[in-house]
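Repro case for the chain-ordering regression, as requested:
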Amino acid sequence: MTKEIIIAGFGGQGVVSSGIILGYAGLIEDKHVTFFPSYGAEMRGGTANCSVVISSEPVASPIVANPDIVVIMNEPSLARFEPTVKPQGLLFFNQTLITSRPKRKDITPIPVEANAIAEELGQGRIANMVMLGVMAKKTGLLKIETLKKAQRKRFIKADEEQLSLNDKALERGYALL
Amino acid sequence: MAEKRLMYGNHAVVEGVIAAGCRFFAGYPITPQNEIPELMSIRMNAIGGVFIQTESEIAAINMLFGAAAAGKRAMTSSSSPGISLMQEGISYIAGADMPVLVVNVIRGGPGLGNIAPAQSDYYQATRGGGHGDYFTITLAPNSGQDLFEFPKLAFELAEKYRNPALILADGLLGQMMEPVEFSYEPIDPKSLPEKEWALSGCKNRERRVVRSYDLKPGKLEEWNWRRLKKYEAIKKNEQRFEAIDCDDADLVVVAYGTCSRVSGAAVRMARVKGLKVGLLRPITLWPFPTDVLRDMSQRVENFLVVEMSCGQMIDDVKLATECRSKIHFHGRPGGGVPTPPEVFTKIEQALGGGR
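-- result from build under test --
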């Protein structure tokens, strides 16, 4: 089993954090993982994406050309990454911020009101956690409990209030499907 | 087995260097290796080592020269333009036969270039790099685990042969996160044997001299011949490589570092399609694993060299295979990174158009 994932959005939407959380989660479940961020002269509000590979075998290439799964957080990323998804792949997209719709018929689009749900929970910036929850449920790739542990490894300096809110967002996402 | 930690490649270098018993770092910031000095400043402080952010790369490499002459394990890291600035110092260090470790996290070039991954400093690393007749031992990691383990290997080789050693990584290896196992017990610097040439104060003993020049007629020539013997020993003893699925291969992909990871995935794709394809990954770039390639070229008809450059290592592949095989090439210069499907397409083409 090898799953190649790309997460994309604006800088500040937690794209890189989501990738690292998946990396930690894979490691916790004793899988082989790689995480590679697109790095550059990036800034808050600019575009950001990262590639994550989770596999039962050692990962050959950390570079992902055609992902099995994409998680799209904003409009420009949909146009950029929809064409790259493998046939029969999964495309999760943040419906709250994306007005256009995926066009391909050979992939499965999964709309998520990520930002709306996050705002309802009290914090727009945890939309990425909602997306991770949905993804975990739909793919069965990682357990929800593992993701909760993983986010605590990522946000090692965060206070308990924030960490519990993150857990809630993961759970809400997980319960959506 | 030690616990695995998810780490950036750049951070794995820091832990590897410290576990190797090195307590001296001097360097100047440059992307995409800034996580090395950043973490090094914290870690060296915590364990009583030396961290110096120098005024320039030139200062850093000359501080390494001094620390090495004093008999201590010393390292610096930089990225391509910064490594160019260090070349004069590396040449002096090579001329004085001093062991140091230099890590180059390559970015796109030439000039200021960009901050994307590249392998365009291969010639510079494997042909000496600065002025004069010299070579530097050059290791090419392709994973976080290598980045942790190679500093120890580099120091051991550097000290065994009294020669500077390079680790040639790239922006992808530095910025990627992978699980890393701290696979050996950290070395206590105090447990390292004192070097018989170290400038440690000459009270009650003969004075020692470390220098890269001698103006007496014939002396420098003699030194160079002696150093050549050392280089020949390194070439004979230290060629390292990894060969995957090469035994029955009609085509062998030759790639190091990031390109060996991408090519590894392409080779898997080829095997699934029934193509007999293998991967040869040089681990030492200098000495280049010439012997294994020479042997392979007796029976392997095609080699495909994959590099993130316009083609530099391909020269060494050609020299090793001595015109016996067809040498194909796929390159991505200036920060371009090949993908597995891209390399797979080249494999099919090289084998005669998707047979």
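Ordering looks correct now. Chain A touches chain B at residues 20, 23-24, 27, 32-37, 39-41, 59-66, 153 (CB under 8 Å).
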